[in-house]
Each structure stands twice: as structure tokens, then as C-alpha cells.
């Protein structure tokens, strides 16, 4: 079974081309769990499958978290899979990718830089405070696409100094909070300058912090744009794995387009010989 491993700003993925492998869909959750385990296999935040399109796209992207659960979409994953699609002749420099949350369009900017139009925000609650252990945290809530990919957006002063260890338990409690019936990816952020921010994301399905989260960054900038705290154009978000850029187009209080731009990296290509499989 052939695979590629890629990362986008440190958010890493294993990609399987099922147009060639022809594996049954029921195998994918177990493959995700086995292959994404960092100590026993290749290791990754997520597992992506390229499959035949059914809705007029160039191909279909199926996304699985490292725990085997299916994700609605993944922004950095979509950027990586667009490069995979271009490099393997599945699509041109502009492509349409079918995802569980709806159609995503991708654009090749340069050899390693790709831009995707994220799924539209379908739910936005700008003022949605959440209480944890007697402390009330200001919070916003965003879902991208349909079915919606859920994101909690949480401001946190001194975020870079706090570090992930201190925030891990809070991130876990917010991720499972009853205020979010679907669970939520928890995006802590701190504004660091004009149209600049720092971000940590505790990801649902990974159940830990990841080096970057594209849909999370899009959700954070959506909230900050509607709150008037950033311009929405060329907003730069730094995170442990690098930097992502978000552009927001809006009509008054409605987001019409949400774009994510950032780097991709082909880490390796190979063949899975895992005897556990």
C-alpha cells in the first residue's frame, strides 16, 4: 500500500490514493488509528483518502482523525491534498475537492504554497461564554461547512508564555464541554500586533494540541473580523508549526468567502509494510 506523508505548517497527514488501492471504506478508521500512531507506525495528526468524485469535483477527500473518527474537513489537510492532486495529475493549478462538509476549491500559488477557500461559516456565535471549574471564559463558537466543523475561539492573555502544558487540561475540558454538543476544536489565541496573532489549537479527534489548525485559524479570524479587531485581509497567525494567512470577504455581518494560505511539505513517499495490518 503506497502512501505520502505531508505537513502544512506542522499539521501532518498520511495520504492514501484509493483510486489506485481500491480498499473498502470500512477499513479506513482502523488504518487511521494504526498508521497515525507515532510510536508504532508512521505517525500523523490525520489520515486522508483520495477517492472518486461523486459531486462534480476533481476528486473526493475523506479525512480521518488519528483516533479513527471521521472529520468533516481539515484546512491544512485540504491544502496538502491539493498539492498531492496537482503533483499526481488529478487536477490542475485550480481544483475542486469534495469534502464531507462540502466543496472546497484550491489554488496553487507556488511550488510549495497553496491556498484553499474554506467551507462557509454556517454557525457563528460571537458571545458564548463557557464556565470551567468556576471560571467563566469569554468564548465564541463557529461551525464551518455542512455538517459543520465545530470550533471554540478563546482569547488568552499571555498565551505564548503559558505554553501547551498549562493549557492542556483546560483545552480538554473545553473540548468536551456540554456547551458544545458535537464537541469542539479549542482555539486559544492572543493578538500580537496589527492583523497578527498567536494561536494554539487543541484538536478534537487528536485529543491534544497540534502544531497548526487551518480551519481553526479561519474560525479565529472570522470572529476577530466580525468583532472589528482585525481587518480580515492578510491576517497572519503564528503557531508552533509556522505561519498561516487568512483572508475574509464579507458583506456586513455575513462572511461570503474565507481563504487559507500557507506552506506544504512533502515529507516522504513510500510503501506501508506494517505487519499489524
Question: What do these coordinates show?
Answer:
This protein is of the alpha+beta class and 277 residues long. 20% of the residues lie in helices and 44% in strands. The chain contains five helices and 20 strands. The protein has an 18-stranded mixed sheet that branches. Helix 4 links the parallel strand 13 and strand 14. The longest helix has 17 residues.
Summarize this, please?
The protein is an alpha+beta fold.
CA-to-CA gap between the ends?
A: 11 Å
The level of helicity is 10-25%
Residue fraction in strands: 35-45%
Order of helices and strands: EEHHEEEHEEEEEEEEHEEEHEEEE
Q: What gyration radius follows from the Cα positions, in whole Å?
A: 18 Å
Report the total helices: 5
Mean pLDDT: 97
How can the largest sheet be summarized?
18 strands, mixed
Quick one: how many beta strands? 20
Shape label = globular
Q: Which structural class do the helices and strands define? A: alpha+beta
Uncertain regions: pLDDT < 50 for 5+ in a row? Answer: none
Keywords:
single chain; 277 residues; alpha+beta; 18-stranded mixed β-sheet; two-stranded antiparallel sheet; 5 helices; globular
SSE order and pairing:
Layout: E1 2-8, E2 11-17, H1 18-21, H2 28-35, E3 46-51, E4 59-65, E5 70-71, H3 75-87, E6 94-99, E7 102-108, E8 113-117, E9 121-125, E10 130-132, E11 135-137, E12 140-144, E13 149-155, H4 159-175, E14 185-193, E15 196-203, E16 208-210, H5 214-226, E17 235-239, E18 242-251, E19 254-263, E20 265-271
Parallel strand pairs: 2-3, 4-6, 13-14, 15-17
Antiparallel strand pairs: 1-2, 1-20, 3-4, 4-5, 6-7, 7-8, 8-19, 9-12, 10-11, 12-13, 14-15, 15-16, 17-18, 18-19
Amino acid at each position: 500500500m503506497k502512501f505520502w506523508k505531508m505537513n502544512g505548517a506542522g499539521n501532518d497527514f498520511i495520504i492514501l490514493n484509493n483510486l489506485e488501492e481500491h480498499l473498502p471504506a470500512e477499513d479506513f478508521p482502523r488504518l487511521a488509528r494504526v498508521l497515525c500512531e507515532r510510536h508504532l507506525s508512521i505517525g500523523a495528526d490525520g489520515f486522508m483518502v483520495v477517492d472518486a468524485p461523486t459531486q462534480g469535483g476533481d476528486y473526493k477527500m475523506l479525512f480521518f482523525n488519528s483516533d479513527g473518527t471521521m472529520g468533516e474537513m481539515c484546512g491544512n489537510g485540504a491544502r496538502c491534498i491539493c498539492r498531492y492532486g496537482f503533483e499526481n495529475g488529478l487536477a490542475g493549478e485550480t481544483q475542486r475537492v469534495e469534502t464531507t462538509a462540502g466543496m472546497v476549491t484550491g489554488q496553487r500559488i507556488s511550488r510549495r504554497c497553496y491556498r484553499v477557500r474554506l467551507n462557509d461559516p454556517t454557525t457563528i456565535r460571537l458571545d458564548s461564554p463557557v464556565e470551567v471549574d468556576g471560571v467563566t471564559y469569554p468564548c465564541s463558537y463557529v461551525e464551518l461547512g455542512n455538517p459543520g466543523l465545530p470550533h471554540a475561539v478563546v482569547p488568552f492573555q499571555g498565551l505564548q508564555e503559558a505554553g501547551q502544558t498549562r493549557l492542556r487540561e483546560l483545552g480538554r475540558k473545553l473540548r468536551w464541554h456540554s456547551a458544545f454538543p458535537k464537541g469542539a476544536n479549542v482555539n486559544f489565541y492572543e493578538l500580537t500586533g496589527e492583523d497578527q496573532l498567536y494561536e494554539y489549537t487543541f484538536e478534537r479527534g487528536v485529543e491534544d494540541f497540534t502544531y497548526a489548525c487551518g480551519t481553526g485559524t479561519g474560525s479565529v479570524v472570522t470572529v476577530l473580523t466580525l468583532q472589528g479587531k482585525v481587518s480580515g485581509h492578510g491576517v497572519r497567525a503564528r503557531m508552533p508549526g509556522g505561519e498561516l494567512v487568512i483572508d475574509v470577504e464579507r458583506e456586513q455581518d455575513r462572511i461570503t468567502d474565507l481563504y487559507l494560505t500557507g506552506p506544504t511539505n512533502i515529507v516522504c513517499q513510500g510503501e506501508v509494510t506494517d505487519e499489524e495490518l
